[in-house]
Design brief:
Elements: H1 9-16, H2 31-40, H3 58-79, H4 84-87, H5 89-109, E1 111-112, E2 115-116, H6 119-126, E3 130-135, H7 142-148, E4 152-156, H8 162-172, H9 179-182
Antiparallel strand pairs: 1-2, 3-4
């Protein structure tokens, strides 16, 4: 799977114009994911901190700051050269739910010209496969951590469904996936 976790802001801006959904939304992390990220990466108190120079609506600003801080911490952890997060069992376990959901979203929702943004997913679904399972920390090599945060995807080819999956994808961009994988969204 190609990585969007470590893309630069210029790459993000190029993709934002061509994807159906996009990761440049104000809040792509859920509140409990923000808290978990801040907690496991050592900045739990950041969520409650309010800068005095901010506007009066402190609850909205605090939430926006927490999301920004959590996103930035996650980006830094995922793009660090040493990939310390992957070697710390507590941190990796804390990030797993969030990263699995974001990866599933990337695979199923992020598109360019109506097709899966991920080239491997595009290839398999175009050829009639469904996305079956996402495997956490399946590739912990340096390249695997850099490209996909260690995750790998299983694709399932069911002979009786290949034509239907292919046609649905070609005609309207529908990406076939197991209910287990869809439940991660």
């Amino acid at each position: 799977m190609a990585s969007t976790f470590s893309s630069s802001s210029s790459a993000e801006s190029r993709h934002s114009e061509t994807t159906a959904g996009n990761f440049r939304e104000d809040r792509f992390l859920l509140p409990d994911e923000e808290q978990t990220i801040l907690s496991v990466l050592g900045l739990e108190s950041t969520r409650r901190r309010v800068d005095v120079s901010e506007k009066k609506d402190t609850s909205a600003n605090t939430d926006a700051n927490a999301n920004t801080n959590a996103c930035e911490l996650l980006r830094r952890a995922l793009t660090s050269e040493a990939k310390e997060w992957a070697h710390d069992r507590h941190v990796a376990a804390g990030l797993s739910t969030c990263l699995m959901r974001l990866c599933t979203r990337y695979l199923l929702k992020e598109k360019r010209r109506g097709r899966a943004l991920d080239p491997v997913a595009n290839f398999h679904v175009r050829n009639g496969a469904s996305l079956e399972r996402l495997n956490w920390m399946a590739d912990t090599s340096e390249k695997g951590l850099r490209m996909s945060a260690g995750m790998m995807v299983n694709y399932m080819y069911r002979l009786e469904r290949i034509k239907d999956i292919n046609e649905a994808y070609i005609n309207d961009g529908t990406i076939a996936a197991s209910s287990t994988l869809r439940s991660l969204l």
